[in-house]
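Protocol step 4 of 5: obtain the predicted structure for the target chain.
Materials: sequence only (see below). No template structures provided, no constraints applied. The aim of this step is simply to have a reference model before the mutagenesis design in step 5. Sequence pasted as it appears in the construct record:
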Amino acid sequence: MSFSQEIKNEIGSIELRARHCLIARLAGIYLMCGAVREGRDKSLITFQTDNVKVALICFTLLKKTCKIGISVCVRAAVHCKGRQLKLHKYIVQVQGSEVQQVKSMLKLNEANPVSCRLLEKECCKRAFLGGVFMSSGSIADPDRAYHFEIVCRNSEIANFLIEFLSSFGINAKSVPRRNNHVVYIKDGDQISYLLGFMEASKAYLDMENARVTKEMRNEINRKVNFEAANIGKTVRSAMRQVEDIEFIRDNGGFSLLNSSLREMAEVRLEYPEASLKDLGTHLEPPVGKSGVNHRLRKLEEIAAEMRQSIQ
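Step 4 output (C-alpha cells):
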C-alpha cells in the first residue's frame, strides 16, 4: 500500500461527530469529484471517483446529513488484450427533489467554489481538507522526496485551494498538467504540518521519522564529503611540497638553506603523507602548525625562484 493510500485510509477512519464537520468533509469531496447536472426531466448531483472508500464515505455522509435516497453504480474498468486501461468508476448519485436539498446544504449557488460559511470553524477546515485530499490528493514517500499534490479539474479550484492553504501559512503553487491543474507543495515542514492539520497522526509520525533519518544521513554524508575533501586537499598540498623540495635538492639548493628550512625539507621528504601538525612533532625542537606552514611556504618560494632563474 502506498504512503498516500495509508494517509487516505487514516483520514477516512476519523469519526466526525458534528454535523457542520460532516458537511465540510462532503464539500471537500464534492469540490474535487462532484457535479450538478440540470435537465428538463430531472436534476442530478453525482460524485464520481475511482476510490471505493471515497464513494462509501460520500454515501455515508449524504445519509447522515440529509437522510435522502441515494443510488450507487459502478462503471466497469476498460480492458484491452488482458490489460486494464481504466479503473472502475464508482458513482454516488442524488436525483429528483432531493437535489435541491443537497445544493442548499453545500451552498452550491454561491459564487466561490466552496462557501466560506462552511469553513468558519477550525474543525470544519480540517474536515474539508481531509475530503479534498482523499478525493484527489497524493503525497510521495518521504524516504524518497517531499511532494504533496492535489489534482484539480480547473484553475478556479486550484486558485481557491492555494488561497485556502495560504490562510494558515502554507505556500502552495500550481502547474497545468494535461487537462488539469495541480496544486503542489515541496516543503517538508509544510507537508508535515498538513498531515497534522488533517489529523493523520500516524502518517505525521512516519513523515517526521523519515525526515529525521534523512537529515541524519545527509549530515553524515556532508561530514564524510567534507573530510574526504580535506584529505584530498592535504594530499595534493603535500605532493606539491615534496615536488618543490625535490626540485631544490636536485638542483643543489639544499646548501643554500638555513638549518631550520633544511630540517623542514628533510622531514617532509621522510614523512610525505603527514599532516602539518604531525610534521611539527618531528622537528627539533617541535614546532606548531603555523610554524610548519610558514617554513613550507618559504621552501615553495625558494623553489619558484630557482625555477625562474633556470628558465
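Step 4 remarks: Strands lie at 34-38, 43-49, 71-75, 79-80, 83-84, 89-95, 137-139, 148-152, 173-177, 180-185. The two ends are 73 Å apart (CA to CA).
Proceed to step 5.
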